[in-house]
């Protein structure tokens, strides 16, 4: 250790620059966190094809493409010789192979401990780009926003459902990470209080029986470049008496922000704003 410190001191005295860390970032919540912390120069490759609109500044000619969300360009990633690699759950199967190239940060957040895992990941990213103090300060600001939002939501009588659209079908997303954030972090009351089988459809009969005051919709199809949902769907006569529809509270969440990003400093902030606009 003493020799390492002496070497660092000698490097400093000689005026030699220590290279800043650089990374391949395949999770957009992690990318928006790096951007929020002022570390964008550290990013050398991303999945350019799917970048959300709020991160368009990274869609440059000089930015390399790490592949798509599932099929990674391992040759390019290795050639970039990154100091760190950040993945989402979509790249989880490649984690061991990527770990052989550089240390891997998995930016996924656990549904049962969403805030703590999101905080852990954001701090890990702060460490990777040598901006841990900035990450801690930004998280504290965001936590305060969550608390104030939850106070408002809990004081409201409104109940909500979170739905996912894909190829003309609407799934009930009551047990997902999206629902965890909306209901458990931001405190929006649930119109559905029971566990729902994965893939269960939100048809007119179901929506009428639950009668939500707010319907939040994440359009997976639109997020991945397929035909967006038909917004006439909720204008059918057999849905006319549902509170959310009567009161114009069907909220179309920004598709890429929700489906392809999330859990980052900017995305969590933007998502909070979209949810809370519907709360009276």
From TrEMBL:
| Location(s) in or outside the cell | Cell envelope
**Do you know which InterPro entries this protein is assigned to?**
ABC_transptr_periplasmic_BD (IPR002491), Bact_iron-sidero_bind (IPR051313)
Does Kinase count among this protein's keywords?
A: no
Keywords of the record, alphabetical order, are: Ion transport, Iron, Iron transport, Signal, Transport
Q: Which SUPFAM superfamilies match?
A: Helical backbone' metal receptor
On the tree of life, the source organism's domain of life is Bacteria
Does the keyword Ion transport feature in the UniProt annotation?
Answer: yes
Q: Which family does it belong to?
A: Belongs to the bacterial solute-binding protein 8 family.
Record-given protein name: ABC transporter substrate-binding protein
Q: Which organism is it from?
A: Ignatzschineria rhizosphaerae
């Amino acid at each position: 250790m003493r020799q390492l410190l002496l070497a660092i001191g000698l490097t400093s005295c000689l005026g030699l620059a220590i290279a800043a860390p650089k990374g391949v970032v395949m999770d957009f919540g992690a990318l928006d966190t790096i951007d929020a912390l002022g570390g964008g120069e550290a990013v050398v490759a991303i999945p350019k094809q799917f970048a959300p609109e709020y991160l368009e500044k990274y869609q440059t000619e000089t930015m390399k493409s790490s592949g798509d969300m599932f099929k990674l360009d391992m040759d390019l990633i290795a050639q970039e010789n990154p100091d760190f690699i950040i993945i989402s759950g979509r790249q989880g199967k490649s984690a061991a192979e990527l770990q052989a190239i550089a240390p891997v940060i998995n930016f996924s957040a656990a549904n049962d401990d969403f805030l703590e895992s999101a905080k852990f990941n954001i701090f890990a990213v702060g460490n990777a780009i040598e901006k841990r103090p900035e990450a801690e300060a930004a998280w504290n600001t965001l936590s305060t926003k969550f608390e104030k939002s939850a106070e408002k939501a809990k004081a409201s009588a409104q109940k909500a459902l979170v739905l996912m659209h894909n190829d003309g079908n609407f799934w009930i997303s009551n047990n997902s990470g999206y629902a965890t954030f909306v209901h458990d972090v931001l405190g929006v009351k649930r119109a559905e209080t029971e566990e729902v089988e994965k893939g269960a459809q939100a048809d007119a009969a179901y929506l009428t029986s639950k009668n939500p005051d707010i319907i939040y919709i994440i359009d997976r199809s639109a997020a991945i470049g397929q035909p967006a949902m038909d917004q006439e769907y909720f204008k059918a006569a057999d849905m006319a008496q549902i509170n959310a529809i009567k009161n114009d509270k069907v909220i179309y969440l920004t598709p890429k922000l929700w489906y392809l990003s999330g859990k980052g400093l900017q995305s969590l902030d933007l998502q909070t704003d979209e949810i809370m606009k519907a709360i009276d």
